[in-house]
TrEMBL record:
PANTHER family registered for this protein in UniProt: UDP-N-ACETYLENOLPYRUVOYLGLUCOSAMINE REDUCTASE (PTHR21071)
Biological role stated in the UniProt entry: Cell wall formation.
Record organism: Azonexus hydrophilus
Family (UniProt): Belongs to the MurB family.
Protein name: UDP-N-acetylenolpyruvoylglucosamine reductase
Gene that produces this protein: murB
Amino acid sequence: MTVQTAIDLTPFNTLALPGKAARYQRITDPGQLAAVAPGERRFVLGCGSNLVLTGDFDGLLLHMAIAGKRVLREDDEAVYIEAGAGENWHEFVQWTLAQGCPGLENLSLIPGTVGAAPVQNIGAYGLEVGERLHSVTAWDFARQTLFTLDRAACRFAYRDSLFKQEGWHLDGRVAIVSVVFRLPRNYRPNIGYADLRQELAERGIAEPGARDVADAVIAVRQRKLPDPAVTPNAGSFFHNPVVERTQADALLAAYPKLPHYPQADGRVKLAAGWLIEQAGWKGKDLGPVGMYEKQALVLVNRGGASGADVRNTMAAVQAAVREKFAVDLSPEPVFL
């Protein structure tokens, strides 16, 4: 694949923001990465579903499109499945279910690619991808070699990983080329979230299998979240904030209906969508950008927005939540 120049990036980000890449290369094989100059400025892109494009990019944009998926091996406790970084995440999850390998169904319909999933440690409905990940193989541009990290080395945390830390994936030091998942044989459906239980109950399913859970997740997400192909968006735009117990207690005394989730370290996670809605931003726009009318956590491009428009709306929402609740919201997407 040859390097292209002055490529329009609007189709490569789900917020449909304008911008051009000075140089662009579609990567379909890990061997192509060896030809990239170690010192060249670069950005590694999946499908752009977690990206805010703020304008033109003057470096080399590497679009990861490495395909392939296979059952790698099995043992008494788990099945190990490998997938290329460019595989569509939702299609990959559905493929694992078709192979009779449950474990990822709660992450159905999340936009993105397999290679991007561990960077953000994507999660939904009580599951994070780091819980099912066995190892990641990546290309190190400085050392010009492939290397593998196990789950512990990836340092997974809430919407965080080693790859989001300075000097790693997002700074162009490495490019993830494949991921191995460990899917347990002892399957137990994860239906702790009320929305899932309600959806399954409405379907008359008392003892759901993995396919039932996947179908319920898909139905709930389709009902609540906009299709990026119809309404450009980057999914959940803000992290659910985690605050100290004392602050959470004070907020709950004033707002008893505030959804909250105690954490292992004693802190409390709050529902960002609820905070945004109560601050008056559900369905509200600022110019061509606003918060979705069915889910206040989702920032949408109503048409013709720029990266600056996104920044302005983000700042306005953050200010409104801070003023009402004294809670700071941080964005999930990467800004380029």
